[in-house]
Amino acid sequence: MVFNEDSGHAGRSHELPKPIYESVVRSLYGDQKTLLVGSLSIALAPIILYARSGDNIQLFFALLLALLGGARQLDGLAFNKAAKHPLSLKAISKWESRYAVMGALYVGVLGTWCMAGMAVSSDEFVHMMSIAITLSYVVGIIGRNFSSEKVVLSQTISTGIPMVSGFVLFGGIYHQLLGLFLLPFFFTIWRMSKNLRRILFGAVVTAEDNRTIAARFDVALGNISHGIAMLDADGKFAVVNARFAPLAGLYSGNSLENQAVSTLDVEVSLVDAEPGNECLLSEMVNNLIDAGVRSELKYCLPDGRVIEAKFNPMTNEGGVLVLEDITSRVTSEAEIRKLASFDALTHLPNRRYFSHEVNRMLGGADGLEPCSVFFIDLDNFKDVNDSLGHAVGDKLLCSIALRMRSRMPTNALACRFGGDEFVVMVPGRLRRKDCQKFAERLIAEISNPVLVDGHQINVGASVGIAQCPANGRDFNQLLKVSDVALYDAKARGRGRYSFYSDELGDVIRDRRALENELRRAINRGEMEVHYQPLVDVEHSRISTCEALLRWKHPERGNIPPNVFIPIAEEIGMIAQIGKFVMEEAALRCVDWPEHVGVAVNVSSLQFQQSDVCAVVSGALAKSGLDPKRLEVEVTESAMLKNIDETTTVLAKLAEAGVRISLDDFGTGFSSLSYLHALPLDKVKIDRSFIEDIHTDERSLVLLSGVTHLAKELGLQITIEGIETEEQRDILMSMVKVDEMQGFLFGKAMPADSVTELLEYPSVELPATVQLTG
Fold first, then answer.
1. 3-state DSSP: the chain helix, strand, coil percent, rounded to 5?
2. Which 8-state DSSP code applies to residue 226?
3. Residue 393: CB atoms within 10 Å
4. What percent of the chain clears pLDDT 90, i.e. is strictly above it?
5. Fewer CB in a 10 Å sphere around the end CB: N or C, the chain?
6. What is the pTM assigned to this prediction?
7. Residue 213 has what pLDDT?
8. Which spans in 417-474 are helix H?
9. pLDDT of residue 97 exceeding 60
10. Does residue 588 contact residue 630 with C-beta atoms inside 8 Å?
11. Could you tell me which of 85, 127, 80, 86 has the C-alpha nearest to residue 99?
């Protein structure tokens, strides 16, 4: 409820705020003693007139006025009792109405008493006294009841009607004129009450609004996190909230209102200023006031808190000073700057900041000053992440970073370049021998076992070295060439270091070009699957074709598998290539005779990098090939990487009907111990067993023993690498063998050639073996 002075309804109590409305009603009932005295006095007046005139009607009005006065007293007592408890708006309105009704009855009787005096008596004193007492009471309405429009209006009407009626009906012409003049009198009383009410309520409501605003302002100032102070033209504090003193370095209980700025006698230091910038806070504030412009600055309190001060001048001099504790923001900004410049894990400089610092330390007009750059990559770090998890890998990186720093010269700078790569820059002109010693020291330190979460971990490191100015004076160039040298160190067996040279750069650039071309070779159709036949000795026919990948480069020509397969394994393409070979081989085999199958080799990295079961099932589904016609060849090295997981995968493939063969059997150390545990169908004897079979009798004895063992375990036997008829004849006469494979029976050939070979049995083949489709 908001009071509206211009609404024309300013006197309506229900438009007032409840607290003011309640105070109005309380004021009506407020002075019961005065009301009692007034009621007794008015009740005595008719008795006096009775004594003078002897009219009995005067006694009647005396009694009636006394009874109504008593009733009003009882009503007042009832209100005072009810007002001891909180009153609702409805209850307040009810009590106002009760007061108005009781008052209207009382003054109505009073007006009627005046009219009766005019009617029954011709005594002028009776007329004069009744008129004077009634009018005086009506005037009192303004002073006592003007705050309630309802009360004023009801009492004015209740008094005026009988009085004016008495003058007009029972008096002479002059009485009638007097009665008419009473009309503007009563109107004036109502109007005066209304004006008083408007003025009073306007002031009260404004004051209440001001108190509300002030209270809200005080609450806001008291709860805001900023310190706020208003300074007058004399440099004294006019308004200060509770937070200002603590942010000014004073005790929170200090009262600064009406105090001079010199009270701020705390020594502070300005932030982002030259050393030795300490001053009193009062001096700083006075400087802001004297400048008279909007400004801001930061200062540091003795306890380390950083405060931001903003000064806004006012038009009448003085101004408003706002203080804010920005310690957490400054700390966060510093942390953000650190995160932007340092690696969050190892706390070494990151690549961007490292480059900036090297250029700052060594940069000159002609490029960098002499220095040496060591590019370090951890060996086998990926295996740690894959087997023990990234949390262990992260802790290992932190440990290695600490070890590296412990072996670095004091003037050297290191950074984590990314992943498991680090770069160290040593300023100054180092001899080649000194660089070698430092690289060897780094490799030895990193290669020491590390204990992380109960795991003893061994990793190595490879280092590429570039020197300035020999290999360039631009730091980015030094990073590139040291990375090239690192590539060479890893290619030569890891755990090594390598210096950059122009010749090495040419080799590495060619190697990297080959990598990029290999990534695009499948999509460009440069990869072809060739097939080498395996001959069924008993039936003298082709029983299986082994799928072998070939790369026909449009410019380099045919690139051998022993060149591009290791590259594919290094760059993580072996899974993609293996999937391509599996799908292509299955599609081709569908078109061959039913008794001819296809064998596809699956490397150890394929077991690690892909879901072999999903690849095989996908190829079978895509081609429609019967699973029993697909043979998956695995090497001993593939099984030894993770024997349990590999065995599980092979068992699933065997359950699906896929045949499993162990390739290059006999080249490892533990093949025999796994023969009984794996779901194998076949073993392929490596060519090393038959190279000297025609001259070395022990080779033949060893081969016979191995094949006999395999036969006892129910496995088929294939012997690889048969290149001469002599080897073939010895094997057929001395060894139990199921299949033979080698150049004697055919080299790896394109798919179309295999199809032609199987469709046309007349194709020339070694005379001793008849190969038919």
1. 55, 20, 25
2. S
3. 24
4. 21
5. N
6. 0.48
7. 66
8. 432-447
9. yes
10. no
11. 80
